[in-house]
Design the sequence.
């Protein structure tokens, strides 16, 4: 992510020490700090910056069979670390976005139920819901917010080898099949244009090709 001065920040997993780390370019050098070192933490991290350029990171606390989804927020002087979801084995391959108020939203995979889940910070608590339960879905996801702040998620159906798309309408999740031709949809990346239309790049396992889908 880039701060308001255009300096890049990178969250990443330190495999040697099993820690979550953050690197920030100061303009002349990289400032590197350890964000969380409690256990095996930092895999599947996703970074966003709030309106004050403070980094926010979602990531996995890896414990075989009972991993948690965690959240780290920089206050300006210290990291505040909390657990978003500890109910089962979850937190894999999350995707983080911040709304206009700076509150975090995250899509992620629940490995216990094999479902795509979504968590949102209300300002006082995390609300968690299941987006899609059809087979094994959401093992990877890409989250973006439209101009109204509604979450839009591109994700992969492992069971069917399909690319899927979910959008919150304001009252319910609208779920669509984007591409079902062969085994498609992994390694996807979602962006929304100025009209809120989705654009998704993704991999076709069947042909070995890079594909592109545009919604309306």
Sequence:
């Amino acid at each position: 992510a880039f701060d308001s001065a255009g300096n890049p920040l990178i969250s990443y997993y330190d495999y040697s020490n099993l820690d979550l780390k953050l690197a920030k370019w100061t303009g002349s050098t990289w400032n590197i700090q350890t964000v969380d070192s409690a256990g095996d933490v930092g895999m599947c991290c996703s970074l966003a910056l709030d309106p004050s350029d403070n980094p926010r990171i979602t990531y996995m606390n890896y414990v075989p069979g009972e991993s948690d989804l965690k959240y780290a927020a920089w206050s300006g002087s210290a990291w505040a670390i909390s657990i978003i979801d500890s109910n089962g084995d979850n937190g894999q391959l999350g995707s983080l976005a911040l709304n206009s108020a700076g509150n975090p939203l995250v899509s992620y995979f629940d490995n216990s139920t094999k479902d795509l889940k979504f968590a949102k910070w209300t300002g006082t608590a995390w609300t968690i819901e299941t987006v899609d339960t059809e087979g094994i879905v959401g093992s990877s996801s890409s989250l973006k917010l439209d101009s109204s702040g509604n979450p839009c998620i591109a994700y992969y159906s492992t069971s069917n080898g399909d690319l899927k798309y979910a959008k919150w309408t304001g009252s319910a999740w609208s779920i669509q099949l984007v591409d079902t031709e062969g085994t498609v949809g992994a390694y996807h990346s979602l962006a929304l244009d100025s009209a809120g239309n989705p654009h998704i790049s993704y991999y076709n396992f069947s042909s070995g090709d890079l594909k592109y889908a545009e919604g309306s």
